[in-house]
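Worked Example 4.2. Consider the chain below.
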Amino acid sequence: MASYFRTKVAKDIGTVAVDILETVSNNRFTVIGCNLANTTTDPVSVDIKVIDALAVEAYYIKQLIIPAHTSAKVITNGEKLILAEDCTLRIVSDTLASIDAVISYAEII
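Applying the procedure from the previous section yields the following structure tokens:
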């Protein structure tokens, strides 16, 4: 099994859900960092969902309020989020083009 450390950057996430990370058969991701930055002048509400291989969608974070021009570290202090085969990490905001996301993860093949 090989492991690769990677970073995913998504800019201007808004009211249309964005699939940030998607695993496929024979690979898994261990998310080791997730930072969300509010780039607007108003507070925004953010949802993070995980969709499993059977298309079951559940909230990882629901309605996280991020004040104007600040950021939130969603995965910290050694916490990890495992995305098994055929899973998706999805982010959406309540405000157009309001969130920049930086995700650090290990890809296991």
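The CA atoms of residues 4 and 107 lie 5 Å apart. The domain at 3-108 is CATH 2.60.120.1330 (Jelly Rolls). Compare this with Example 4.1 before moving on.
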